[in-house]
Write a structure and sequence with these properties.
Blueprint (H helix, E strand, L loop, with lengths): L2 H4 L2 E8 L6 E8 L4 H7 L1
Antiparallel strand pairs: 1-2
Amino acid sequence: MEQNECKPIIETQISKSKDGKYIIHKTIIVDIKPVGYYEKVI
């Protein structure tokens, strides 16, 4: 497995609410692990 595949992918999205009163800042963290990892943990 490559080193970059172990790092989580972090995405941010900034938008304005429909009424324009608020700023919505959403952070998405994507972590990809092999199935074998979770089988050992669980």
